[in-house]
Amino acid sequence: MCGIVGYLGTREVYPILIKGLRRLEYRGYDSAGVAMINGSGHLNVYKRKGKVSDLENFATGNDTTGTIGIGHTRWATHGEPNDVNSHPHYSQSKNIVLIHNGIIENYASIKEGLKKRGHTFESQTDTEVLVHLIEEIKQHDNMKLGHAVLAALNQVIGAYAIVVMDKNDPTTLVAAKKGSPMVIGIGENEFFIASDASPIVEFTKNVVYLEDEQVAILRRGEDLKIRSLKDKEVTPYVQQLTIELENIEKGGYDHFMLKEIYEQPRSVKDSMRGRLNAEKGIVSLGGIVEHEAKFKNAKRIIFIACGTSWHAGLVGEYLFEEFARIPVEVEYASEFRYRNPVIYPDDLIIAISQSGETADTLAAIELAKSKGATIIGVCNVVGSSIARATHAGSYTHAGPEIGVASTKAFTAQVTVLTLMALHVARIKGTLPESRFRQLLYELESIPTKIEQALKLNAEIKDIAFKFKDSTNALYLGRGFTFPVALEGALKLKEISYIHAEGYPAAEMKHGPIALIDEEMPVFVIATKGPNYEKVVSNIQEVKARKGKVIAVVTAGDKEVKGTADHTIEIPETDESLVPLVSVIPWQLLSYHIAVMRGCNVDQPRNLAKSVTVE
Ligand code: AGP
Predict the structure, then answer these.
(1) Number of structural domains, the chain?
(2) Which of 73, 439, 452, 519 is 20 to 30 A distant from 319 in Cα terms?
(3) Same structural domain for residues 312 and 420?
(4) Which CATH number characterizes residue 280's domain?
(5) What is the tens place of the pLDDT at every residue in 113-126?
């Protein structure tokens, strides 16, 4: 997954490109490049392996003037990260340059044909093939750039968000997308193009989310023009951006991840805003109202997601079965899409995705749609591909999540799923009124309880110091906290590179207990609830084998306190809402351990914020 940015207007383009790429580096950061056309019509291209700062150092002292340009930060899919594979890529004549986020699946066959017609290639990328094809069509059919791009994309199979620039036409940028995200900003006599709104928001709030199979022609002094791949004119739908610049800055925290952990009281509250009124006994998710009948008659709900979002789906399983008495299955999108699953028309699919761009989840949605299922989305990015691929849905209003490790998105997803399960329970009448009202009031108190959990940061940091050199870790939970055990393990491994596994606490006896020794930290959630005594027994089994136990307990707990090596006391809440509070210590623990180990917390090795390739 890569970050793309483009600008056409009256300002100096280079600073806009570089700042935009910095804002997009969370999307991929193994190489970066920029291309500008200066006032004399000269095309300058600077691109290299490494981060945007490396690119900036490389370009220093060179001609970076001009008011039209494109930029790219890469997460390699075809061709290793190096200078020649970095974007922008040149056409054969080197007059046209192109940047790309996505995968051209049939690039090899196109490349073979181009080679036979005398084209030579510098890189191993699929992207370079596309810009050669565009130029060949442009020259052969004497087309304008926009039409040549449109014609070329009709030969392409795959996903793309591209921006194309022609040295011989410094008044025009051409953009196009399919399966990868793209936002176009519209200012006074200027246009901005980016993978998301973060490079645009400080300049304009007027944006157009390009739809799949659309080509946008941006020309100086003219209004934005959009054509479909079938060459039909499309009227641009201009929306107002709702995020602010500070949303995307670190806000004084050392890392985006820490900022986002501390934003959770607000992001959970925002995810409930306008959807919950405990006093009036109201839960209402506008996005699903027109599908209430579907929920009411659903014989089965299937969650499809990846990673942390899959863990949120696992919490959703417990919520919907407990509150709405609907059977639930939770599927990894990558498995679901290739398994030829049995899907009935009265199945209800709920797709969960923070970025709204995860390729496997998107593909799983298309498969389920093709079999007649209704798809509900739970996404965090407005206008994202998954949001637009579903029949309906409810956004998590967590705001931009920049840190690669998902934190506030998880609690926002669980919040929305809790509201959804309560909404459905209400229309199905599966919850006694008293229990329903009690849950609404308790849900309303969760942001405050998360705030209280965040106050444990200092003691959690002390515990982190004791286990920062561990090589392995076990996370245990039962019932509603089993998914939190999985989530805690994922957080630790993806940012500190310590191997960690999450298990249902009872499963320990079926193998993992063999791992227990004095070197093995075992992180257990042992909050008050129907499984409490059983978890206490599990803790004793670990202690009997000299394991180190770090337990999250309900404030005031005495029993576990007397057994575990360390306890973290969180505010008491309803068992079904414990995931929202008990995940906070595990987020902070993994954050501090990763920082103490000198890891790149916001951009962990090998990872990207959203996996838009298979
Ligand atoms: C979680 O910390 C990871 N960044 C990763 O597992 C992520 O949750 C997964 O890739 C799914 O992303 P999505 O929610 O944007 O679809």
Answers:
(1) 3
(2) 452
(3) yes
(4) 3.40.50.10490
(5) 999 999 999 998 99
